[in-house]
């Protein structure tokens, strides 16, 4: 019974709770047992055991008396970058190891108000800086997938690695993550789940510990496309507490699942056939195009000439904004506080002890490109490239409805084989950062397996605020791929 509950999709659990086939309390207990069984995956930094059980009792009361909210009694996981009132929030960093926020992020509050129950805060790369989850101050999270005839531990991707692991290993029904340059989509691809990065401004950033404020966006990570549609509809909406939040109507995303894509124009950008792309992924990309064609879509070749410059531009803009955002963590309030005799020593020692290697690297890079004499040469040029990229997408969408690309150039790699060169690691984001630079929505759908039986993902990109197109096309890919969602990590 326990496994049958944890292996349900969010939609199945929602319907089962409403029919009273099982209780929310049963559901939470089942997930807590599984979380205990798979603690070695290190998916969670903080577990909310007592809170979750008490919340389940409240949910069962609502289910019994008919006052049912959209996500009543549904157990979810929250990336540890979302501030949660009264629950420790670390951003994966030692400097925030003991931080307990006095307020709630807007996105997590929306889910809570819809009746969702939080099982815990998931592991992540420190301050969302990374593509492997290896920079977390609380240890590496591990992908539940294994290569065939090989027991090496695999990376879950990052930075939302813990959220991806929690969903893939059936430790929750869904999770939320953040995507600054691919941090939802890449771990979703590595762990064989669905992950969507909405349009910038679709979901509020209030209460999210910022990495790069002009690029960060919250989104759901789920077992299925339908589950992602259900969650995103709740997470979306204008928030007066976030000046970048857009006041635009939120569609009924779940209604797009199963809708026809006949006549949809699907662009294939030639610049995404990067050198790093494996032969297996190129084959899967072609197959994905055939699936969409068979469903009535039309394939259209497109060109996005500035794509090769996206990664270097991103790794100027991202560290620049990170340098500015992380200046507030100084050892004075909320953060790790080193022993010091002077104020300058307090700043230096607290930050030296509290920040990890990758965070320090990006602070140095960001401070350098923003410094006098280098601002125009680096940061200014990067913003010019960003403008070109955005315009090229706008031009492409004059002729196509969505774009189809691979999500990541490679599949999940072994933890002990992770590249030591940071530049090589940054290349994991080569197919995802363009979307963030342009503020577009994109979804990663698990679509195939490598010869070593690890997941691959395909990415769909749509114009601003056209997530409905993503859900419609993604559901077709999902149905054609027949992906083995129910593979147990045991």
Mean pLDDT: 95
- SSE order: HHHEHEHEHEHEEHEHEHHHHEHHEEH
| CATH architecture descriptor of the domain at 2-259 and 441-481 | Alpha-Beta Complex
Name the structural class: alpha/beta
Strand content: 5-15%
Classified by CATH, the class of the domain at 2-259 and 441-481 is: Alpha Beta
Taking the sheet with the most strands, its summary is: 11 strands, mixed
SS elements, strand count: 11
Count the DSSP helices: 16
- What's the name of the CATH homologous superfamily of the domain at 2-259 and 441-481? Amidase signature (AS) domain
Q: Poorly predicted ranges (pLDDT <50, ≥5 residues)?
A: none
Q: Percent helix among the residues?
A: 25-40%
Distance between the termini: 17 Å
User: Can you tell me the overall shape?
Assistant: globular
Please give the radius of gyration in angstroms: 21 Å
- Order of strands, widest sheet: 1-3-2-4-6-5-10-11-9-7-8
The CATH topology of the domain at 2-259 and 441-481 is Amidase signature (AS) enzymes
């Amino acid at each position: 019974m326990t496994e049958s509950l944890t292996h349900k999709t969010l939609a199945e659990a929602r319907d089962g709770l409403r029919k009273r086939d099982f209780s929310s309390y049963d559901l939470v207990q089942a997930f807590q047992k599984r979380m205990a069984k798979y603690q070695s995956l290190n998916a969670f930094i903080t577990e909310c055991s007592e809170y979750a059980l008490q919340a389940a009792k409240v949910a069962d009361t609502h289910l019994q008396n008919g006052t049912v909210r959209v996500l009543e009694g549904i157990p979810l996981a929250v990336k540890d970058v979302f501030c949660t009132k009264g629950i420790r929030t670390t951003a994966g960093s030692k400097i925030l190891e003991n931080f307990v926020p006095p307020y709630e992020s807007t996105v997590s509050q929306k889910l809570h108000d819809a009746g969702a129950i939080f099982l815990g805060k998931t592991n992540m790369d420190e301050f969302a800086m990374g593509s492997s989850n290896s920079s977390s101050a609380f240890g590496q999270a591990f992908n539940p997938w294994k290569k065939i005839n090989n027991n090496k531990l695999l990376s879950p991707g990052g930075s939302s690695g813990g959220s991806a692991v929690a969903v893939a290993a059936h430790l929750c029904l869904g999770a939320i993550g953040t995507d600054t340059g691919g941090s939802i989509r890449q771990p979703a691809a590595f762990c064989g789940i669905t992950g969507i990065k909405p349009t910038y401004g679709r979901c509020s950033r209030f209460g999210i510990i910022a990495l790069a404020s002009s690029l960060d966006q919250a989104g759901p990570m789920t077992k299925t496309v339908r589950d992602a549609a259900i969650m995103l509809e709740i997470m979306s909406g204008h928030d007066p507490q976030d000046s970048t939040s857009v006041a635009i109507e939120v569609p009924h995303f779940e209604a797009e699942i199963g809708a026809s894509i006949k006549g949809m124009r699907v662009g294939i950008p030639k610049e995404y056939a990067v050198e790093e792309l494996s032969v297996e992924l190129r084959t899967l990309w072609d197959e994905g195009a055939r699936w969409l064609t068979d469903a009535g879509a039309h394939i259209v070749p497109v060109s996005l000439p500035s794509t090769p410059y996206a990664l270097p531009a991103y790794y100027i803009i991202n560290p620049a904004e990170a340098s500015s955002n992380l200046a507030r963590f100084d050892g004075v309030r909320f953060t790790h506080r080193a022993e010091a005799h002077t104020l300058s020593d307090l700043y230096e020692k607290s930050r030296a002890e509290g920040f990890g290697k990758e965070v320090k690297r990006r602070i140095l890079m960001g401070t350098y490109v923003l410094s006098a004499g280098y601002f125009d040469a680096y940061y200014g040029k990067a913003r010019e490239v960003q403008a070109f990229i955005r315009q090229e997408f706008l031009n492409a969408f004059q002729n196509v409805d969505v774009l189809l690309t691979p999500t990541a150039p490679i599949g999940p790699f072994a933890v002990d084989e992770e590249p030591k060169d940071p530049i090589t690691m940054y290349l994991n984001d080569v197919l995802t950062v363009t979307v963030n630079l342009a503020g577009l929505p994109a979804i990663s759908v698990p679509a195939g397996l490598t010869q070593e039986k690890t997941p691959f993902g395909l990415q769909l990109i749509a114009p601003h605020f056209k997530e409905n197109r993503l859900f419609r096309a993604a559901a077709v890919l999902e149905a054609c791929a027949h992906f083995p969602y129910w593979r147990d990590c045991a």
